[in-house]
């Protein structure tokens, strides 16, 4: 079998257009605004921020940026958060992770107004997801579930989904979202015994372990749908570098029915979902119906 590729780039472009249209429909009531805070000068994070700013502009979302020195204290960062919490032009606040070691990242995230927590990382939003209440959902898992629903639709129910990775950003919320779709969910991680036996049980396999090409072809159940969340930069023989996922794409394509590539799979969905969450937050704050609901 050679898998059909799930085109995340095309789906993300479609979703971004839907958000842009939604922004227009709520324009009389609110112009959604997203604030991004970056601590330090990590070049990869600077690229992300530039891309986020561009995507916001295309969708008609106002964007605000604060780049702060790596030496900033916890207390000073909390003041910046409080400013954006109080700013009525800002409906979404994203603090770029990772933060420097001297900062308590979860304390910073929990200082964000949960209504403006477009990353969905606040303990209130994580709790809402766990008990099945509506709230803001982390962008990457949301992007994965939208891709899965597009490909598999209502047939998600009853499927065995295996999530490889247990982070608060991807693995745990991904498992919650799959449960909500009535999948039977197994969460595996780096300490799981007989890992390949577990992954081979997945009709759906979501790889988010952060290790380049970790999942081998024969770890994939024949006919499975593989969602690769990994983005790893690796060296090539000629000295240049390339991006690869957490799955050996070529080998896994011989087993899977559907598979996301890297790049061009889950990655573009994350930013599109950030725009979606910002629109959702602005609508909730202003008591306007969410046009993509
Ligand atoms: N760093 C890597 N991924 C993310 C994300 O989804 N949100 C934030 N805030 N930082 C990140």
- List the total number of helices: 10
Proper CATH architecture of the largest domain: 3-Layer(aba) Sandwich
CATH superfamily descriptor of the largest domain: NAD(P)-binding Rossmann-like Domain
Helix share bin: 40-55%
Which series of helices and strands comes N to C? EHEHEHEHHHEHEHEEEEHEH
Quaternary state of this entry equals single chain
How far apart are the first and last residues' alpha carbons, in Å?
36 Å
Write the layout of secondary structure elements.
Elements: E1 4-5, H1 8-25, E2 33-39, H2 43-59, E3 62-68, H3 74-86, E4 92-95, H4 105-111, H5 123-131, H6 139-152, E5 160-164, H7 171-180, E6 184-188, H8 195-199, E7 204-207, E8 225-228, E9 232-235, E10 241-244, H9 249-253, E11 258-259, H10 266-286
Parallel strand pairs: 1-11, 2-3, 2-4, 5-6, 5-7, 7-8, 8-11
Antiparallel strand pairs: 9-10
Helix pairs in contact: 1-10, 6-7, 6-10
The chain binds guanine.
Structural account:
The chain has 293 residues and is an alpha/beta fold. It folds into two domains: 28-113, Rossmann fold (3-Layer(aba) Sandwich), CATH 3.40.50.10860; 139-268, NAD(P)-binding Rossmann-like Domain (Rossmann fold, 3-Layer(aba) Sandwich). The chain has helices at 8-25, 43-59, 74-86, 105-111, 123-131, 139-152, 171-180, 195-199, 249-253, 266-286; strands spanning 4-5, 33-39, 62-68, 92-95, 160-164, 184-188, 204-207, 225-228, 232-235, 241-244, 258-259. The strands form three sheets. The protein has a six-stranded parallel beta sheet with strand order 1-11-8-7-5-6. Helix 1 (8-25) runs parallel beside helix 10. The protein is globular. The model has no long low-confidence stretch (mean pLDDT 97). Guanine (GUN) binds at residues 94-97, 119, 139-140, 169.
């Amino acid at each position: 079998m050679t898998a059909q590729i799930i085109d995340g780039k095309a789906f993300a472009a479609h979703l971004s257009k839907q958000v842009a249209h939604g922004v227009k429909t709520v324009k009389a009531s609110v112009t959604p605004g997203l604030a991004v805070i970056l601590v330090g000068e990590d070049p990869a994070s600077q690229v992300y921020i530039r891309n986020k700013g561009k995507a916001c502009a295309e969708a008609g979302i106002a964007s605000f940026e604060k780049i702060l020195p790596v030496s900033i204290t916890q207390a000073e960062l909390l003041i910046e958060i409080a400013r954006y919490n109080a700013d009525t032009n800002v409906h979404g606040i994203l603090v770029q992770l990772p933060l420097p070691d001297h900062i308590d990242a979860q304390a910073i995230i929990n200082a964000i107004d949960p209504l403006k927590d477009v990353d969905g990382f606040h303990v209130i939003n994580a709790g809402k997801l766990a008990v099945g209440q509506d709230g803001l959902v982390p962008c990457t898992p949301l992007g994965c579930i939208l891709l899965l629903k597009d490909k598999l639709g209502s047939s998600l129910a009853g499927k065995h989904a295996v999530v490889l990775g247990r982070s608060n950003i991807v693995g745990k919320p991904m498992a919650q979202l799959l449960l909500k779709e009535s999948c039977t969910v197994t969460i595996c991680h780096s300490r799981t015994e007989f890992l390949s036996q577990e992954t081979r049980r997945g009709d759906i396999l979501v790889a988010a372990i952060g290790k380049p090409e970790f999942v081998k072809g024969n770890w994939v159940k024949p006919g499975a749908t593989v969602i690769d969340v990994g983005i790893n930069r690796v060296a090539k023989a000629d000295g240049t570098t390339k991006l690869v996922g957490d799955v050996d794409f070529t080998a896994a394509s011989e087993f899977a029915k559907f598979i996301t590539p890297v790049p061009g799979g889950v990655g573009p969905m994350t930013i599109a979902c950030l725009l979606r969450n910002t629109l959702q937050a602005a609508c909730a704050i202003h008591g306007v119906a969410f046009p993509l609901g």
